[in-house]
Design goal:
By secondary structure, the chain is an alpha/beta fold. It is 42% helix and 18% strand. The strands form 2 sheets. A 6-stranded mixed beta sheet has the order 6-7-8-3-9-10, with helices on both faces. Strands 2-1-4-5 form a 4-stranded antiparallel beta sheet, covered by helices on one side. Helix 3 packs antiparallel against helix 4.
Length: 371
Amino acid sequence: MTKKQESTEDEEVIEETGVSDTHESLFEALREIMAADGKISTDEEQLLAQLKELVSDDSKQPKKSQIRSILTAMSKVDGKADFEESTIINEYLQSLPDEHSEDSDIHEEIPDSTRDLEIDGDAHMWIRDLDLHYGNAQAIYNVSIPFKRNSVTALIGPSGCGKSTLLRCLNRMNDLIPICKIDGSIELDGEEIMGRGADLVTIRRRVGMVFQKPNPFPKSIYDNVAYGVRLHYTPSRRELDKIVEESLRRAAIWDEVNDRLHELGTSLSGGQQQRLCIARTIAVEPEVILMDEPCSALDPIATAKIEELILELKKHFTVVIVTHSMSQAQRVSDYTGFMYLGRLVEFDKTSKIFGDPSKELTARYISGRFG
């Protein structure tokens, strides 16, 4: 199928939604997002139906947060949020009029910064007064948050609130987006990592990342784990064998793959692939592990194994996890930060956030009354 034919089909699907012409810029954003992977899936069709319902009434202006949530979900249908798609989304959101607090029960005053943050013990990383812009559109507003050493911190909030964007700041992955501008400070073990002279390769070794969708390399199980080690070090074959085995054991997958290390990592099940990716991450001995919704594509059994693994990993690493699952945040995290519309609304011990939150907005979100 040619790109011209694909584009025509995209337009036909959008036209079939029957949405008003007043949202033509939204249609254009949708065309570009759907054209990014060259096909229209059932999930995308369902999201289009949601948008039809949302914007079909010209008398009511849909909220930016609602549109952001659906567009972001659409950009992730193929398992990843492409940088180009993120740019399209933020350019469209920038074109919308600013929201006003019409629903006082939802839009209570959100602080520009949560200053009085306390943790029991040493902060392994600190974000201080961080602002992030995509072009002229601001996505993160003056966020400060500590991450306690050898603990799990969960970031929660509705889709499009900025939690994954904030997570990617911790190992400077947002630097790869040309229109992204970040102001503020991020410290790793007391060392500022936002300066121009910072060694990004070293930062990303010290702060590893596990993505939403398992992404093993098209290599053997052994070479998946050994890949980063070979890049950063020059181990002997015996040393490399030991590192691979130890990493697979720590990722709780050694017993399942030890007799087939030379099979492709992509041949494993989804849950096994995610644990392989965790093994690949810890093989280079990071200090901090970032996890962006690591269980969203997994079944309940595979999810339980990942959660057990997270609790084990925090004995050796500092873990920061983004999750949409309130129950998962309660099960695995020690501290929780609730984000909304790019701001940190509340940060505290997880037991306090879910048991007795200090902000009404937090209470409404965790009880499912919005988001």
